Automatic annotation (TrEMBL):
Identification of the protein by name: Outer membrane lipoprotein carrier protein LolA
Originating species: Chryseobacterium lacus
Keywords in alphabetical order: Signal
Signal peptide: 1-19
Highest classification ranks of the organism: Bacteria, Pseudomonadati, Bacteroidota, Flavobacteriia, Flavobacteriales
Length: 189
């Protein structure tokens, strides 16, 4: 009886573990195999094996940038990877530096300031590789509200486009209020 229970427990744990990740074959169907070595796909598979369910997968720049995201309750988990020398390098596509934020805030009303808080920024999308070998990234961001349960007309949502070559230094290129069609080009830093 004890051995049957142990076997059933092992089987259920194995099934749960297997169900939460993508197989190599599934990854090869999702991502064109000619763009990715088996080694890269196995590394990518390993990055998602700890998740309870299968995440959403993204191929931003074929053969160069792939990512996954997963909504776990109210938290969005995600990882983005740059493929270099047949290996994955985890990258951050959201800026974190003061110069970027200062530049962004110089284009909005003083009462509508932006800050770096994960819940205010959407998942960034790498849209293309530009001629100068930098990556164009798009994101939406909501201005900070110190009283989130009180509606305020000062809370704005903006769409941003920015570029990076190294995923460490980001340059804001243009922005627009989400309620407008007009993009504003950003001046020199």
């Amino acid at each position: 009886m004890k051995s049957i229970f142990s076997f059933l427990f092992f089987l259920s744990v194995s099934t749960i573990s297997y169900a939460q990740t993508f197989t190599l074959e599934e990854l090869q169907k999702k991502f064109k195999p000619e763009n990715y070595s088996e080694k890269v796909l196995l590394e990518f598979q390993k990055s998602i094996e700890h998740l309870e369910e299968k995440p959403d997968l993204y191929e931003y720049i074929p053969g160069e940038i792939i990512a996954w995201s997963f909504m776990d309750g109210r938290f969005l988990l995600n990882s983005m990877f740059l493929i270099e020398n047949d290996s994955l390098k985890e990258i951050e596509a959201l800026p974190k530096d003061d110069a970027f934020l200062t530049k962004l805030n110089s284009y909005v009303p003083e009462k509508s300031r932006f800050i770096y808080r994960r819940e205010l920024w959407t998942l960034p999308a790498v849209k293309e590789k530009l001629a100068n070998k930098s990556y164009l990234i798009k994101v939406s961001v909501k201005s900070y509200n110190p009283r989130p349960y009180e509606p305020s007309e000062d809370i704005l949502t903006y769409n941003l486009e920015y570029a990076t070559k190294d995923f460490k230094n980001f340059r804001l290129l243009r922005l627009k209020n989400a309620n407008s069609e007009k993009w504003v080009k950003v001046g020199k830093y």
